[in-house]
Amino acid sequence: MELLDMQSMASAIGVSVPVLRFLLCFLATIPVSFLWRFVPSRLGKHAYSALSGALLSYASFGFSSILHFLVPMLLGYASMVLYRKRCGVITFFIGFGYLIGCHVYYMSGDAWKEGGIDATGALMVLTLKVISCAMNYNDGILKEEDLREAQKKYRLLKLPSLIEYIGFCLCCGTHFAGPVYEIKDYIDWTERKGVWASSNSLPSPFGATIRALLQAALCMGLYLYLVPQYPLSMFTSPEYQQWGFWKKLSYQYMAGLTARWKYYFIWSISEASVIISGFGFTGWSDTTPPKPRWDRAKNVDIIGLEFAKSAVEIPVYWNIQVSTWLRYYVYERLVQKGKKAGFFQLLATQTVSAVWHGLYPGYIIFFVQSALMIAGSRAIYRWQQASSSSVVKTLLAAINFGYTVLVLNYSCVGFMVLSLRETIASYGSVYYIGTVIPILVLILGNVIKPARPAKSKARKEE
C-alpha cells in the first residue's frame, strides 16, 4: 500500500519514486535541523547530528549509502591519526579517488539527466568536508607565517574526537546538497563559541527561513513550468538542426536558464535547513539598524548570477560554498609564496571541479570552457579599468556583461547533456561561438595590453 501511495505521489508530480523519496528526506532536513536546537549537551548534539544524517541517508538511498560514506570518512580520520604531516594530501587523493570510482560505477550523471538519483551527490559534498578537515589538521603543525589567511582562520591545533568528526560530516543531512562548511565553525556552533557565544544576541531564524522556503517554491514553480518547453532532447532533434543561428543560441540560453531553477530550488531548501538550526548565522551587518547575516547557509545569489557583470563574479554567486572551498583548498594552495596566480591555477581548479562532478566529457569541457570564459572576462575588465574615458568604460562594461551571458549559457549545455557527441553537436550548431570568442579575447589581451598607471613624481623621488 505504501509503495502504491509513493508511486501515485511520484506520478502526480512527474518524478520517479527514488527522487520522491529523496525529496521527502531532503525536506525533512528542515524540522530535523530545527530540533537540533533542543538537544542537550555537546555530546548529545554531535550524536544527534551524526545519527540524523545517517538515518536520512538510509531512508533516502538505502544502507549502501552509509557504507559509501564510511569509506572516505574513516580513511580520512585514520590519515589524521596516523600521519598528520601528510594527512591533507593523502585524504585529498583518497577522497577524490573513491569519489571517482563511485562516479564511474554508478554513472550518476546519466541517472540525474533522466530524473534519477543516487548517493553520489551526497558523497560529493561529504568528500569536500573530509578533505578540508584533514587539510586544516595538517595546517595546525605548520608555521603561522607560512599560512594564508584562510589557513590561519580554520587550522586545527588538536584532533577532533571521532563523534565530533562524524557529526560534522553528516550534520542533519547537510551532506545531501550542501552547503559545505568548516569543522571549526561546526564545533564553535555546537559549543556556543564565536558568533554563537551569547544566546541573548542571536537572531530569530524564522523570517529568513520563510524567505528561503518562498524562494524555493518560486524556483520549483518556474522549473516545472519551463522544463516541458525546453527539453534537452531538442539538441539532437532534426527540428533543432533546421533552426537558424539566433534561434539555436536563444534555445541554449533558455535551456540553461531552465536547468538553473532546479539548482536554485535545491539550494534554497538547504539554506532554510541551515538557517533554522542557527548554524547559518555569521554575525550582524554594519547597517543601522543591524541585520542578521546568514552567509554560511547561502549557496546561490539568483539575481547576482543572472545579472553578473563579469564571468569572474560567477563563482561568487553560484554554488558559493563549493566555490569558496575550491579557492581555499585548490586555487590558493597551488600559488607559490611570493608569486601571483595565473591561468594554470585557474585551469587546475576548474579541472578539479570537473572531476568532482564526474568524468563525463560534458563536465570536463564545461569547466575548461569556464576557465577560458573567466580569463577572457578578466582581460575585458583590465581594458575597462585602464581606460580614462567614461564612455569607453561603460561600453566595455556592457560588452563584458553580454560576453558573460553568451559564453556561460553556451558552455553550460555541455554540463547538461554530458556526452561528448551531444556537447560537440550543440556547440558546433552555433559555430563554437562561445569557445572562439574567449580565445580571441585572450589573444587580444596579450596583444593589446592596458597601460600601467604612471607612478606619481613624488613616488619616484622617494
UniProtKB/TrEMBL annotation:
It is a multi-pass membrane protein. GO terms for biological process: lipid modification; phospholipid biosynthetic process; triglyceride biosynthetic process. GO terms for cellular component: endoplasmic reticulum; membrane. It is found in: Membrane. GO terms for molecular function: acyltransferase activity. The keyword Mitochondrion does not apply. It comes from the Eukaryota. Pfam families: MBOAT. Keywords: Acyltransferase, Membrane, Transferase, Transmembrane, Transmembrane helix. The chain crosses the membrane at residues 12-36, 56-75, 87-107, 119-138, 159-178, 208-227, 263-284, 363-383, 395-418, 430-448. This is 1-acylglycerophosphocholine O-acyltransferase. It comes from Kalanchoe fedtschenkoi.
